[in-house]
Amino acid sequence: MVPGCHSETQEGILAHFDEPSRCYFHDGDGVCEEFEQKTSIKDCGVYTPQGFLDQWASNASVSHQDQQCPGWVIIGQPAASQVCRTKVIDLSEGISQHAWYPCTISYPYSQLTQTTFWLRAYFSQPMVAAAVIVHLVTDGTYYGDQKQETISVQLLDTKEQSHDLGLHVLSCRNNPLIIPVVHDLSQPFYHSQAVRVSFSSPLLAISGVALRSFDGFDPVTLSSCQRGETYSSAEQSCVHFACEATDCPELAVENASLNCSSSDRYHGAQCTVSCRTGYVLQIRRDDELIKSQMGPSVTVTCTEGKWNKQVACEPVDCGVPDQHHVYAASFSCLEGTTFGSKCSFQCRHPAQLKGNNSLLTCMEDGLWSFPEALCELMCLAPPPVPNADLQTARCRENKHKVGSFCKYKCKPGYHVPGASRKSKKRAFKTQCTQDGSWQEGACVPVTCDPPPPKFHGLYQCTDGFQFNSECRIRCEDSDAAQGRGSNVIHCRKDGTWSGSFHLCQEMQGQCSAPNQLNSNLKLQCPEGYAIGSECATSCLDHNSEPIILPTNVTIRDIPHWLNPTRVQRVVCTAGLKWYPHPAVIHCVKGCEPFMGDNYCDAINNRAFCNYDGGDCCTSTVKTKKVTPFPMSCDLQGDCACRDPQAREHSRKDLRGYSHG
């Protein structure tokens, strides 16, 4: 019967009609039952039999790895949340966070050639192995295949010799795989320092490798004991054997209290050492630090004339305080940073001290005392903003609290950046921020729209299209004689022109029919070719768009960061020239209508298509994981994160950025 399930008679079933089932599934319920200790890693953790010690890999190397499947994930104990899976199709979803598999191998599985994959797990403490333990997340079997997979295992000793443990069949039913190590007693024992696992299935995922040894028993050391020596399990070494036990020296530990089982220090006597408040236990064995603990105590035993552990009580160290203790302050700790020591602090300019006590004390729990003063950040008078007038009189003073505002107004002919052309907002505020500086503000010149394109190339302006600029078209004297006035316009402070250009009397005729068009470009001119007439641009290939390219760029070598201007029409100017000239208009591959769909489309990964709506960078895609389309698209090539505005490139000098 399944543990937790209760059998019922037919009457009992009828009696409990429409009631919940009383069957209960124990695995994964968070409670470690006795019958689960050897089988449930979810509820009971990794099982180690009594009398043995399991050492997990401290380093690893593998045959195939990249950023998606690093070999280091097998270091340490396996994740308790992972359940072994069989008959899988691929390992693309989340496996690499908990287990290693050779993910650089291309799919589909059925077309793979025979390849040998391997991993090598290293252990920090070489030992005589009793068994090798391999934890699986998948058993390497493919969805459409009935064949069971195998692994080959070898031990590597401290003399770089290999010891073969044979070939072993994999199954999720026998997970973890425990491989016993048989030693030839006619040969000397050896210390194993690494395990090599070889296999041929790309669908095998391993989450951990352990080396099992005897707890408190080292056959190599035991076999090296000389005459008059015996093996000590407490020391894990050979010790001199004497029939008369030697007393231990007097135990003296500063800043500690001792509670001993006897006033004598004979073999087997024990003392409990407890550190005083504000001190931490330092436990050593053979001058090597075993661990450091806050308490409460440790017991030492007299063994063969010496104490089995060396114990000291060191003062708790609070570490150097930082801005999390007092913001905008610098600290001076002349007494050190251990228990009872004091550190003083000073406020960094322009912050000012509020309170009288600028000292912190290292407390018994390793934390600094709560500060009785603070550094209040203040801003000085805000700096002048070019082309703007300060409107708030109090802002000329030198003390302003964080969060204070100062109001400005742009001078006539200037406006706030980002304001719409219609509103031309002139007033803005700056705020005193938490680092003691003011938010930046700016006023930019008002600009007017360019005059109608039919006058392109005929006018001259004193300052472009900015406020107060004068633009003029020079006509022949006959215009003035006929009373048509001056052909001059001015850009006003509201962003509009003072008037409009008119065609000079001599500006007559029509443009010649457009010819010598670039490949794939088509022009439609329903209004004819007279001055001011427009011709619509289009491409013979409906998937392309007409654009203007710089003179040094061809249609075949457009860099991804170039965002060429789209062209919808050309105009016949009063100078009887087409603008823009058809010779500079080309047809370029248009954007696919799949931007912002969480798939990185290689054809859209360029500035012209807004870098596929952010789908090709981890920081901008909605799922926070880049999925290439097609799947073969290289994440370091056509599907790489190229958007210079993405957070991945925020600290790079874009002038030196590789544009693919």
From TrEMBL:
Its EC number is 3.4.24.79. Gene3D superfamilies: Complement Module, domain 1. GO terms for cellular component: extracellular space. It holds the Pfam family Sushi. The keyword Hydrolase does not apply. It is an enzyme of class 3 (hydrolase). Disulfide bonds join C448-C491. Residues 246-315, 316-377, 446-506 form the Sushi domain. It catalyses: Cleavage of the 135-Met-|-Lys-136 bond in insulin-like growth factor binding protein (IGFBP)-4, and the 143-Ser-|-Lys-144 bond in IGFBP-5. Keywords: Disulfide bond, Glycoprotein, Repeat, Sushi. Coiled coil: none annotated. One of its GO terms (molecular function) is metalloendopeptidase activity. Homodimer; disulfide-linked. In pregnancy serum, predominantly found as a disulfide-linked 2:2 heterotetramer with the proform of PRG2. This is Pappalysin-1. It comes from Myotis davidii (David's myotis).
